[in-house]
Amino acid sequence: MEFVSIRIITSEVARLVEFYERATGARATWATKDFAELKTARATLAIAGTSTVPLFAPGSARPADNHSAIIEFLVDDVDRVHQNLTGFVTDFVNGPTTMPWGNRSLLFRDPDGNLVNFFAPVTPAAIGNFTR
Fold it and tell me: Which CATH class is domain 66-132?
């Protein structure tokens, strides 16, 4: 088994896709007006409209209601990314901070309130956890 994707359900697909395209620099591939994917070397962020939820199970997912998951992206330089996002991202939760486990992290919220972490390993142990 291989983990390949996380999907965000939103009531405003185009707005959220535009946000992630700008924040990550990745371009989305649209399958329908209610489904797009941003692919990176390691995983895919899928963004789907509320109209897709009944295809799985009616009422099984609600937009803008995440209170437990953090969407994480590996970046080269957290401080540079923070500078680039300042003025665009409106809800920084935490500025660049080096975590006890050795990652430098930047935590913010997307327009639907989902937590997003851009991080880079900075200690030898943390760097050892990632191969590029």
Answer: alpha beta
| The pLDDT value given to residue 73 | 97
Considering the chain, tell me which residue range(s) the CATH 3.10.180.10 domain(s) occupy.
1-60, 66-132
Do residues 20 and 59 touch, judged by C-beta distance below 8 A?
Answer: no
Q: How far apart are CA 94 and CA 117, in angstroms?
A: 9
In this structure, which topology does domain 1-60 adopt according to CATH?
A: 2,3-Dihydroxybiphenyl 1,2-Dioxygenase; domain 1 (3.10.180)
**pLDDT given at position 130:** 82
Mean pLDDT, consecutive 10-residue stretches, the chain (132 aa), reads: 95 98 97 97 95 95 95 97 97 98 98 98 93 56
Decide: 84 and 108 in contact? Cβ < 8 Å: no
Cα(111)–Cα(16) distance, rounded to whole angstroms? 7
Residue with tokens 């900075």: 122
